[in-house]
């Protein structure tokens, strides 16, 4: 549904006014002074049904309390060279802003390996970026533009996507579930670029299973999407993998300050320095034994489990096709 009624928002607000102090404090970190806009997000995520939105919001606030999410920006992944490994294998960054002021998040879906640290570090890093977006970036943009900005756009680079990505489905599902349950309606549009055959085949299977609201947010662009993306952002805001034509467009260049995935990029430098400042502690020389933060990862719901099952089935089918193709070539 596109619009939530004022009556529904008022009902949910009245219910939230009754919560106890610990939940109120963490709710402040969620809404950042924009209560109506936050209630609207949770209502949209539950099709405008007040009781369901109320439960979702309470569950999210309790998750924040139980996992120390309010303090997660004071717990950087250390030391820096270990964090660099996380950044080099979990490719995400902010390349700039759209013409309307929305942050542009770039995600290297196809080239992320998630092989430099344990699952908990990747989950921690993802949540920290979410919290930095919501508590630092979006409030700063709101102040600068003079109007509320509560969403971002995401550009997903599929170049390099292989069937072996199937091994990361459980981790990606956990991260996606955390977003669905605790950061709903934070992305305006998902732009998918540099699409290989393996993604195209899977997308045909997955798309019919998606909620209509989600399908409306996804745009699969031709090639690296540069021409379409330049309609909503300047060239300087394009991620590096959208700037050039040809097969080399997705490769990470030597200038790491322009590579939005790199720890040397201004976004990651600002984020990491912010967390170190918040921590107030000297940096240890080696990673903490069990990770700085252990976040309870919620189980995927029936709908997401169905999506994962369909995706796994399609990728296995494609894998078998490739295997048969290899046999024919060698014969």
From TrEMBL:
InterPro entries, per the entry: CRAL-TRIO_dom, CRAL-TRIO_dom_sf, CRAL/TRIO_N_dom, CRAL/TRIO_N_dom_sf
Taxonomy, superkingdom: Eukaryota
UniProt-listed Pfam families: CRAL_TRIO (PF00650), CRAL_TRIO_N (PF03765)
Domain CRAL-TRIO intervals: 82-239
Protein name: CRAL-TRIO domain-containing protein
Organism for this UniProt entry: Tagetes erecta (African marigold)
């Amino acid at each position: 549904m596109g619009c939530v009624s004022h009556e529904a928002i008022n009902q949910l607000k009245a219910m939230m006014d009754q919560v106890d102090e610990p939940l109120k404090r963490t709710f402040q970190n969620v809404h950042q002074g924009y209560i109506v806009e936050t209630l609207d997000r949770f209502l949209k995520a539950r099709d405008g049904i007040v009781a369901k939105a109320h439960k979702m919001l309470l569950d999210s606030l309790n998750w924040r309390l139980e996992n120390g999410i309010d303090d997660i920006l004071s717990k950087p992944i250390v030391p820096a060279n270990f964090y660099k490994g996380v950044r080099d294998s979990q490719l995400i960054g902010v390349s700039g802003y759209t013409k309307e002021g929305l942050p542009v998040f770039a995600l290297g879906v196809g080239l992320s390996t998630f092989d430099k640290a344990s699952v908990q570090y990747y989950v921690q890093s993802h949540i920290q970026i979410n919290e930095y977006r919501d508590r630092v970036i979006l409030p700063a943009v709101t102040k600068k533009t003079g109007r509320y900005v509560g969403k971002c756009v995401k550009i997903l680079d599929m170049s390099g996507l292989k069937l072996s990505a199937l091994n990361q489905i459980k981790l990606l599902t956990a991260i996606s579930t955390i977003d669905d349950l605790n950061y709903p309606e934070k992305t305006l549009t998902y732009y998918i670029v540099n699409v290989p055959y393996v993604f195209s085949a899977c997308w045909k299977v997955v798309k019919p299973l998606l909620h209509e609201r989600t399908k409306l947010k996804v745009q699969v662009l031709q090639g690296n999407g540069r021409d379409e993306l330049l309609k909503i952002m300047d060239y300087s805001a394009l991620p590096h993998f959208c700037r050039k034509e040809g097969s080399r467009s997705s490769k990470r260049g030597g200038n790491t300050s322009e590579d939005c995935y790199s720890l040397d990029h201004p976004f990651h430098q600002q984020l990491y320095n912010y967390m170190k400042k918040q921590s107030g502690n000297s940096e240890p020389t080696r990673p903490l034994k069990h990770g700085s933060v252990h976040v309870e990862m919620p189980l995927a719901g029936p709908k997401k489990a169905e999506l994962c099952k369909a995706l796994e089935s399609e990728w296995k089918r494609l894998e078998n096709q490739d295997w048969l193709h290899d046999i024919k070539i060698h014969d």
